Amino acid sequence: METAELTRTGLNPEGFAVFLARRAGEPAWMTEQRTIAWDLFQNLPMPTRKDEEWRRVDLRSIRFDDIAPFAPVVGARSDRPEVLQARVDLGPHSDGLLIQRNSEDIHSELSAGLRAKGVIWCGFDEAVRRHEDIVRTYYGTVRPPAGGKFTALHYAFQSGGAFLYVPPGVQIDVPLRNLVFADAPGFGLFPHTLIVLDRGARLTYFEERVASRPAPGARQNLVSSVAEIHMKDGAQIRFMSLQEYDPQTYNFSSEKAVGGRDASVAWLTAELGGKLNKGFIDCDLTGSGGRCELLGLYFINGRQQSDIVTLLTHKAPHTEGNILYKGVCDDFARSGFRGRIVVQHAANQTQSFLADHTMLLSDKSRSDSVPTLEIEANDVVCKHAATVGEISEEELFYLRSRGIPEALAKKMIILGFYEEVLKGVPAAALQERVRRALQAKFDMRDHDTPDIEGGDMEWRTNS
Amino acid sequence: MATLEIKDLHVSVEGKEIIKGVSIEVNKNEVHALMGPNGSGKSTLSFALAGHPKYTVTRGSATFKGEDLLTMPPDERARAGLFLAFQYPAAVPGVTVGNFLRTAVNAKRAGGAPVKALTGKDAEIAGKNGSQISAREFLKVLKENMKNLGLKEDFAFRYLNDGFSGGEKKRVEILQMAVLKPEIAILDETDSGLDIDAMKTVSDGVNRMVGPAMGALVITHYQRLLNYIRPQVVHVMMDGRIVTSGGPDFALELEAKGYDWIRQKYGVASSAAA
Predict the structure, then answer these.
(1) A93 shares contact with chain B (CB less than 8 Å)
(2) Total structural domains within chain A
(3) Which of A44, A117, A231, A432 is the most buried (most CB within 10 A)?
(4) Are A189 and A182 in contact (CB under 8 A)?
(5) What is the pLDDT of residues A253-291, one digit of tens each?
(6) Which residues form the domain of B118?
(7) pTM assigned to the model
(8) Total number of domains constituting chain B
């Protein structure tokens, strides 16, 4: 009853009231957090093109009243639609699997070995119930609700997501896998990922977010997710995320890792789906010896848009950083990249690199890049580079001169373009999984009719 | 009819005529050397034959096994059995030598029908018509040929020409030729940048192939390569034309006397360099 009511309401005061009533069993601090966040959301202005970090994004077409704050599972939780099962079967093989369908957890498993070592891994809502103290300690601390309008929206309507705690020295080399699958029309999804790696813990993690393809003219969907990754001294993470939402989904994400002394981060975000992806991805290196590879790739076509803001902050000496993004835009797709490296006063003997490279496959695709280096320390090596290009004629001719047909040669060059980024997360099974997703996107793109009726969309650029 | 038959070929690059009427016939079992000073049009001829889109044939004909070569797209020319060993092969980052070459072999076997790009571990491709080479079979062929050319096995997993030395690039060109087994190979300055040992290895690779199954057109600046790959015919190209041809010893004469006497004899302007 309440659930049905929820799917009819929107992201509006009525929807919030119904949503809150449905979460009645939650701890009081959580309810309070939601109320504060909802007030924030209502009071914060909608970002416009005048806001530096939003200047390429048009949010006026989002219909908040049509997006359900909670998307329930239709039918029994144990029922897995064929598409979902096929997705699960794609792998990678994992030591723990969490499946969320729409806004609800439907499957949670962790190997006995990891359980015995004290690893905690479950859906976020379950973690609030069963591990309240640790969740409360960390929740909302590195990505607070006041961070932005869509972050506030996330904290108001949070449901689902994942919680992981890895005890000191425990090493997880077979990946943990978190799959979020959406197939409800007009869904709003607000999953929260909270990862706490204790001293010297090591984690390999794969996150995939996917929505089944809707019928033409389907309702809009909206996702606003937050990920918070806390890494104590010597902790290491290899994190790969793959996003394959449908072309009706507005996807907002706000993610941050904070690493202590000698912490090591290799983090790749692969964005293939969605109507709009607006991602804020940050990492702070707070202790000496910290290292971070902040990596991203995207492959967008039709009228997809991807707009990424990344910030890597060196707060301590002897830290190493590298931001590398590579993307391909076809048809009318448009990408924006704003990368920033900050080397604070104390962070001497730091080296850090920032690069983004975009390949445009059509005359109507666009890409903008704004790299920024802010260096307050004296003894640092810091560089940036950005390129926008097309498929190299010479490479294409070379492959064709060996008998490879043009379309296949192009595909090889494009897929090859991403390899440098994929190799940045040294976990072969995860690399291969994303590689297959890229191939699938490439093949589908040839058979898809891109959403191009209505002629050339006019891109307004302030830059 | 010759395997490769070129008649009165004229080629322009960006509106400028570089090849001004070349006729040449190359058969299997034959080695032709094409010599000449810098800028005489030797590389332009090879690119035009391979089908580079920047090179426009304005007059004349070229047939390959009796078929009109000039109407074929570059990949079809290759699948028909024409091979160009590039002077400066392009680097293709992210595409390994092994996957690239196996894709090329499968493309040739499929005769231009769609084949799947092979990347990563995605090597278990059966192919629609069952004619595709298996990963195991391919690896065996590749390893054997790499060994012959003094290439370490890890080259199969390196990105194509990415960070290769000049000599490595040339060896990998010959490796491709050995695996793809063309009927006519055009070797464009394959000796440039090679030391004597490398030149010998590369030449051995070519000599192993020349015979009833393959003929070669060897483009070179210097005579020294022709000590290792013995041509039956030596052509001299100047200002976009073949001005004279001779037997195997003609190359030695050219080495000793240079090109000026030919210029004078055939009335070619010395400002022909482009």
Answers:
(1) no
(2) 1
(3) A231
(4) yes
(5) 999 999 999 999 999 999 999 999 999 999 999 999 999
(6) 92-160
(7) 0.92
(8) 2
